[in-house]
Amino acid sequence: MKNFSIWFFIVCLTAITAQAQSSKSRRTAPPPTLNVSRPAPEFFWSGVNGQVRRSRDLRGHPVILIFAERPLQKVFIRQVKKLNRRSKEFFARYTLFFVAFTKETGAITRTDIPFVILPDPQTVADQYRVGDFGIAIINPEGNVDYATDRVITGQRALDVVINSFGNQVNSRRQ
Fold first, then answer.
1. The model's pTM
2. 100-122 b/e with 16+ CB inside 10 Å = b?
3. How sure is the predictor about 45, in pLDDT bands with cuts at 50, 70 and 90?
4. CATH top-level class of 44-173
5. Under a CB-based contact definition with an 8 Å cutoff, are residues 102 and 125 in contact?
6. Which of 7-11, 15-19, 38-42 has the lowest mean pLDDT?
7. pLDDT of residue 47
């Protein structure tokens, strides 16, 4: 009986120790890191003074980049209308707007949004892998937070700007 009690005690103690060590190792193991960073391909344009500017000069500002074939393309006009409805909120967040017309260029009318028209649109479209139409939202850190080939609502675009990956990381730290 004494031997049985000692063996039972040893087995229980071994099981408890093994369980404690496995739960301890689970607590100390670092969580897997997620690589969600998608650096935005760089694009260039000429500033008002003729100086060539780069997209990385825009760090600190959210950027909305629209790709379209021409200014009068129906899907482009529809997207601009949707963004125009939230233009004040975008301006309050210092959002910058760029457009790459891949087939013909021209003036953008009926909007409060000041667009910068990129001079080498086909190269930029190729880098972003878009066809006839697309929209990309780049966060202030220079990563693509959202990209699609469909028209999105102005509120959806604003939500992406507000809830950028960098903002989410900062809010988790606090």
1. 0.75
2. bbbeeeeebeeeebebbebeebe
3. very high
4. alpha beta
5. yes
6. 7-11
7. 84
42 strand-pairing partners: none
Name the 3-class secondary structure at 19: helix
Hey, what are 6's tokens? 């000692």
Sheet containing 115-117: give its strands across. 115-117, 96-101, 63-68, 133-138, 144-148
Q: What is the C-alpha separation between 128 and 8, in angstroms, rounded?
A: 66
C-alpha to C-alpha distance for 165 and 171, rounded to whole angstroms: 10
Q: How far apart are the first and last CA of the chain?
A: 59
Helix (H, G, I), strand (E, B) or coil at 66: strand
DSSP E strands, 37-158: 44-46, 52-54, 63-68, 96-101, 115-117, 133-138, 144-148
Place of tokens 């670092």: 30
Residue located via tokens 């966060």:
139
